[in-house]
Amino acid sequence: NRYLSEYANIIVGRMGIPYRERNICVISIVVDGTTDEISALTGKLGSIKGVNVKTAFSNKKY
Predict the structure, then answer these.
(1) Pick from 58, 39, 56: which is nearest to 47 by CA?
(2) How crowded is residue 29: how many other Cβ atoms within 10 Å of its Cβ?
(3) Cα 37 to Cα 49: distance, rounded to the nearest angstrom
């Protein structure tokens, strides 16, 4: 939560899903930020022991 709070300004929403059969929790986070901001958040989350991070970017411009 600390890292998510640091990047609250780019977080659009998040959803947690408990996957009981595998004893894991999946959290999806939708962000709207620069590539640098998203990469920094991804790096911080990935540094947490036991956490795996996957990032997908859209190149659509608004």
Answers:
(1) 39
(2) 19
(3) 21
Task: Answer whether 51's CB lies under 8 Å from 2's CB.
Answer: no
Report residue 43 as tokens.
């790096």
Number of H helices, E strands in the chain: 2, 2
Query: Above 80 in pLDDT, residue 37?
Result: yes
Which among 17, 16, 15, 59 has a CA at the least distance from the CA of 38? 59
| 14's tokens | 């998040």
Report angle CA 28, 58, 33 to the nearest 5 degrees: 70
Band (pLDDT 50/70/90 cuts) for residue 24 is: very high
